[in-house]
Structure formats: structure tokens, C-alpha cells
Fold each of these.
Amino acid sequence: MTQANLKVYATMGCMHLWVCAWTGEDMRTEFRGLRVKQLERALEPFGAAKTSPRPQKGWLRAIREATGISLREMAARLKKTPTLAAKLEKSESEYRITLASLRDAADALGCQLVYALVPKSGSIQQLAEEGARTKAAENVRAVEHSMVLEDQAVGGVEDKIEEETRRILKKARKK
């Protein structure tokens, strides 16, 4: 086994800690990177869905009508009144429905509720980097402003922002 592949498992009390023997890095950092990759892979199928327009009156009504299920029949499957079934459709079309109610209605229509949070653009990693860069810029510019007021500014703000971004990302990976 090469030194790069060597991993040591240590138990400290009831906390388990993985350590990369050759770098001394906490394995939680590696696991976070792995989780980001796994999450991005899991979200791939949803990428196309984010560009698909939602039916104007909502998915419940569109699917119910397309499958020829009457409101009364859907209500019976839900064990609710037709008025409540109509309210479910209306609340879904107005983005006010709960996930539990949407799941129940989907089940009544012979469908499965599938949901995900998909970045508006880019990837999960890019979202993390953008957030870190924004926070880094705020931190660095605040310090730089104070330094200017004290006539101690040293410049190189953009380099400092990149350095602070890397520090924030590294710290976040260790959580």
C-alpha cells in the first residue's frame, strides 16, 4: 500500500476520526468532497426538470385531467370531499401545498412525488464557492476599509479575497 493510500482509523472516546496519515488531514474533509460529488450525481436527472415549465393550473390538475380522473374520483381516493380535493389542486397551483398533501394527492393519482433542490445555475460545488467568495469579499473589504481609515492599507484586495475564499472553503469542508 502506498503512503497516499494509507488511512488510519482511530477511536477517541466515542468519536471516530479518520486521519490521512500522509497529510494529517481530517477525513471529514474528504467525506464532504465525496458527499458533494454524490449529491451532484444524484441531482443530474433533475437538471432538465428545472427548465420544464409547470402547468399553469398545477401538476395535480394537469395529471388528473390527462388521465381522465374526475375530481370526485380523486376525492374518493383521498378519502376527502370534492371541495377539499379542489382546494388541494388550487393550493398546489399557488405554491401553498405541503409536501405531505402533495404526496398524498400524487399517490391518489397513481404517481410518486419526486422532489429535489437544484442549483439555478452551476453545481453544488459552485454554490459553495460563490457563498464563500461573497463572505470572503465582505470580510476582506471590511478589514481593508478599516486599514484605509487608519492609513495602513496594503492593497492586493482581490488576492486576499481569493485567499480568504480558500480558507472559508477549507474550514467548511472540515465541518
Amino acid sequence: MLLKPAKDSVDVLIFVSDIRRSLDFYHGTLGLEEEHDVQTPFGTVHRLRYGTSVVKLMDPKQVPPAGPIGLEKQLGIRYLSFVIRDLSRVCTVLKEKGVEFTMPETQVLPDTRIAMVKDPDGNIIEFNERT
């Protein structure tokens, strides 16, 4: 393998249109742990930890136009996946909070159930439970 991992996860950066709404979703609703902010030439990056992964929310100096929403609407990275425990409870809480589902809790393999929701900018977030 060309790449030699320095940790057992991959980090992701998401440009967002409204940092307060995005922090409320990722930190307030999903419970990702706030780390620290980093100033960059493009804007402020808010770092949120999930296990050994970091979800970086970019509050850009200039908000770029939004692309099409939906898994099949354009090429590129189409969703962020969280491997979790207790998918049914997570789905119940998210429904109570009014989070929009694009796929309800669904058995996709004999040992795997998933659900998909939209974040405040319409990015697809998958929750994946393996037994």
C-alpha cells in the first residue's frame, strides 16, 4: 500500500452555508465533540471529533453556490457514513427532532441496517449499524 496510515480513520471537510445551524446539527443533535477552530485563508474550520475521525465544518468567507442534492445528482463524495450502535434509538430521536430522512431504517444486508438523513445544507448522512 502506498499510503501508510498514521491513524485508523479518515477526516472530512464540509463547506456549510450557516455555521450555527450546522454546529447545532453535528454537535447539538448528533453529539460530535467540539475540538477547536482553525483560521484558514478560506474561512474558519470548526473541528468536531467522532471516535478518531474529525468532521471539519468550513464557515467560508464567501459561501459558494450549492450543488444538486441527492445521491445520484452529481459525481463525487455523496454521503458521510457513521458506523454506530442502536440505530433504532438514533432514528427515533432524530425523528422527534424533525430531522429529514432520505431513507428510513432499512435492512440492506443480513447483518447491516442503515438510515439516511439530510444535514442543514442537504448533505446526506448515513447511519450504519452492523450486527
Amino acid sequence: MTTALNPLSELGRTAVETSARLTKISIDSAERAFAINLEYAKAAVAQATLTARAAAGVQDVEQFLTVRNRLAENAVENLVGYSRSLYEVASEAQSELSKLAEERMAAYQAAVVEAVDQASKVAPGSGDVAVAAVKQSMAATTAAFDTLHKAARQVASYADASVKAAKAPKTRK
């Protein structure tokens, strides 16, 4: 009876730990996103003040167009910086969640293999076929998970490359 409780208590313990890590990752990411939003809001208020001052000081159409162009460039730069900051938070959260999923999958696979090995020791003679089928199923599941994980990493890599390309200053002709 104690052998049946130990795997169950271990499963419960790891589920609680996983939930706690998932919650921490989510809250930390939300906190960072909130800080970025607050920072951007403060900067927007400061920019609005500067815009009002600049507009009040305009004396002719040419100066107005120059001020307008400069303000538009600043707004675009601020928006790109804001988007980049939020992307970095999301990217880091995705990386941490992916790492957590990998760890949980590896632990799950190890637990299943251990349980199958233990079952094979006490199984009757025909149990070898069932054990082999379970092990083959686990190998197929692992291969599928690895393929999906590799594809997700490639997508993340392409997205990261796109964001980094957007960071690069564009040269004007």
C-alpha cells in the first residue's frame, strides 16, 4: 500500500511545485508588463507636454511642418520601443514556460518508464508484450513532443530575428 501512495504523493507534490512555478512566471511577467505600461504612460504624458509647448512656439507653416515631423518620428520610436519591451517580456515568459514544459515532460517520461519497469518485474510472462507496447508508445510520444518543440523553437527564432531586424536603424537615402 505504501508503494501506491508514494508515487501518488510524488505526483501531487510535483503538480503543486509546477503550479507554483507557472503562477510565479505568470505573475512576474504580468508585473513586468505593468511596469512597462506605467513607464510608457508617464513618458506619453511628458511627451504630450513637450508637444504642447512645441506647438505653442510655432510661428510659421514651415516650422510647424518641421515640429510635426519630429514629433511623428518620436512617437514612432516610442511605440517601437514600447512594443519591443513588451515582446521581450513575452519572449522571456515563453522561454521559461517552454523550459518548464520540457522539465515536466522529461519527469513524466521517467516516471512512466520507471512504473513500466516495475510492472514488468511483477507481470506474468505475457506482460512483456504490454511493456514493449507501452515503451514504444512512450518513444513515439517523445519523438512527437521533440518535433513540436523544435518547430516552436524555430518559430520563436524567426520572430526573434524579425524583432531584432526591426531594431536595426534604417539608413536614409
